[in-house]
Design a protein that fits this description.
Shape: globular
Number of strands: 5
Bound molecules: zinc ion
Order of helices and strands: HHEEHEHEEHHHHHHH
Helix content: 40-55%
Radius of gyration: 21 Å
Strand content: 5-15%
Amino acid sequence: MIEATANPMIKFKMFVLLLFTSFLLSFVYFQKAALACEFVAVSHFNEVSPNVFIDQSLTPAQQAQLLQDIQRAVSRVAEVYGAPIATPRIIASEDARYKTLGFNPTGMQTSGFFRECVFIGPKGLNTDVIAHELVHAEVRFRTNLWVEITQLPAWFIEGTGIQVDYREPFLQENIVVSSEDIAHIKSVFYLSDFPNTSVKYYQASLQAVKPMNPKYLYEGLQRINNGEPFTTVFKDIN
Ligand SMILES: [Zn+2]
């Protein structure tokens, strides 16, 4: 009799424990970049300049080069869009494990819990990739989460990033995209649906944002943050 009454309680406790564990694991899985960003200061990464963290995989020469590339990237963003106000935490590594942990080997930007974060991998240790990621950080820093989720299309986020990314495929003379390609990428809203393995769609995103005056970006983001819809604020590119 005792067993009959105890079992459901044990089952219930097991269920709660299982639920809690799976919630925790999925949180860690989906937020691993944000967690890595927030906890990097207590990891083996060293802060070599304010908000710049690197591990032992970078040689002193690469470290010096990285700091110079960051300076250049900030200047480039300032030149194109105006002075940035976000000061994202930049984390760089050449370690091969970096990719196996699910981090983009070139670069990626993510929002932490308390700050914007930029991860730079082995293929992204250059001014172009850093500038690209800095623009993503700036756009996210200037908009609230609701705006980000409901208003900013993937092509806009990528296009504004590519605009300061001068790697060869993104130079105007190397871009051949059709109006169908541009129309197609403009039909994709969520970054999770963005065909991010195709250079063509990054090029198309750049072409899609081209008609916008870059110096208007920050003001436009401010207006969206104040409640105006993306389609009105950025009507030049809609
Ligand atoms: Zn990007």
